[in-house]
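We examine the record.

___
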Amino acid sequence: MKKYEVIHQLKEHKIVAVIRGNSVNEATEIIQGAVQGGIRLIELTYTTPFVQDVFQEIRSLDAVIGAGTVLDSETARHAIICGAKFIVSPSFNADIAKLCNRYGVPYLPGCMTLNEIITALEAGCDIVKLFPANHFSPDFIRTVNGPLPHVEIMPTGGINANNMQEWLEAGAVAVGIGSDLTKAYAIGGINAVVAASQEYCGKL
């Protein structure tokens, strides 16, 4: 899948499930539940133990799989080799941006200020992640898009089924969600994840 195709998928489906599993089985089942519930974009974080095994387990799913919590270019390359179609990090890293540009993989770095956003844009990032979004309001996107109308932002952190639409209406190109799915899994297993994912998708 080419870079522009991945970006198109992000813009079209809008919900990225950020999965942080405590084990291979837990992460795999949460992802399977999310996909069954209609979510087509998965960000598998590198805080998950034996994350490469999870990539192997989910590679046949009907979803675009990316990697999250990527802190350096070595990890980014490992993720790409494992099949990640996009790379996400909590902050901007120039080495990751360079590597992702080299291999034609979208890089979504976490940014909190205009300076960070502009730095990311100048490094070739098409979408930036507003993180942690719970420190901001949706008006932040409108404010940024005033002087920088071409900036595309994906808020992550504190996004839920109740406020997701407000962020999208403010101009968010997509949103990152996840904690609700993990909580649902802890309470009711994979079926609860399916139901929670369906609720999110029903908000679009």
In short: Residues 23 and 49 are 6 Å apart (CA to CA). The chain has a mean pLDDT of 97. The longest strand covers residues 15-19. The beta strands are 15-19, 41-45, 64-68, 87-89, 107-111, 128-130, 153-155, 175-177.
